[in-house]
Amino acid sequence: xxIHYPWESAPEFAKPLQVAEGILWxxxxxxxPLDHVNVYVLEDNDGWxxxxxxxxxxxxxxxxxxxxxxPLFGKKIKRLIVTHHHPDHVGLAGWFQKEYNASLWMTRTxxxxxxxxxxDEQKTPPAETLEFWTRAGMRLDILEERKKEKPxxxxxxxxxLPLGFRRIVDNEEFEIGNRVWxxxxxxxxxxxxxxxxxxxxxxxxxGDQIISSISPNLGVYATEPDANxxxxxxxxxxxxxxxxxDDHLALSGHKLPFKGLKFRLQQMVENHEHALERLINFLEKxxxxxxxxxxxxxxxxxxxxxxxxLVESVAHVNYLFLEGTVSRVIDxxxxxxxxxx
Length: 341
Ligand SMILES: [Zn+2]
Known about the structure:
Bound molecules: zinc ion
Shape: globular
Number of strands: 15
Helix content: 25-40%
C-alpha cells in the first residue's frame, strides 16, 4: 500500500469540492511559502459546522463572506471546530463567534494556548526568546537583526477570542448530519490537537496531525524550551495507527486529501526515526541545534524557513537529550553543544 489521492488537484480558493455526502472541502490562501489551508464544512439539518478557518486577514474574511453568500447560502453557521491553536487554523475563530454567533468547539489546551498567545503582544523579543535563540545557536547576524525587529505576534494573525468555548475531549462522540464523529487527541505538532474520526464511514478530519506529502512541523518554543514534541508525535502516530486503516479518507489541513492513512502514519514515524539516527552519527562531534540543519533537512534553508527549521532542529536534539542519548554543555557563545554519549 502507498498513498492514494482521490483528487489530483485542489479546488480553487473559495470554491467547494464535495469529498463525501455532507462534507465540502474549501481552500483559503496563506501569505507564506505554504500558500493555503484546507477547511471543511459539514452539513447538518439546522446549519453548518466549519472545521478550521485560515488566518485573520481581510482577504480570508472576504473569502469566507463569498462562501457564506454562495455555496453555504440559506443555512446559518452554527458551529466552528478548530483542530489546534495555530494561527492558520484558529485565525478567524473569534470573528466566527462574534459575527456569526457560531459556537466554538476546541480542546481545552488549544483554546487556552490561543487565548493566552493573543494577549501576549510584544514590541521586541522578550529576554526568554533571546535566550532560547542563543541556546539554539541562532546565527549571530540573524540574532542581531531579530533583536531589533518587532516579533511575530499571534494577535497579528488571529482575531481576538471572546470568553467562552465548548471543550471537546478525547474519545468523545457527537453527531453532525448523518455521521457520528469521535474525537481523538494527538500531540507533537500542537498540544492537544483534535482529530475527528467518523464512526459511520471511514473519514478522518486530520488537521495538521497527519498530512500526506509534507511532514508537520514539530517545534520547540521559548514557552517550553525543554518540551519533547518528537516523542509526543511518535507516541501519537502509534496511538492513531491502532484505529487507522488504509481505506480511511484523511482530510488534512494542508495538501491533498488522501487514502493510505495507516501507511502514512508508519512512514512519518520512520522518517523521524531515520532523522534521529543521522543526528546521533553527526553528533559524534559536538554541534549546536542550528548546525544540525544540513543533517536534518538535507537542503539549504532559506531565510523565510529559518525560524521553522530552528524550532524543528531543537525538537530533535531535545528528543535525544531527554532520552539520554546525547549530552549538552553551554559553549562560550551561550549555545548548547550536543554530543552523542
Ligand atoms: Zn496548519
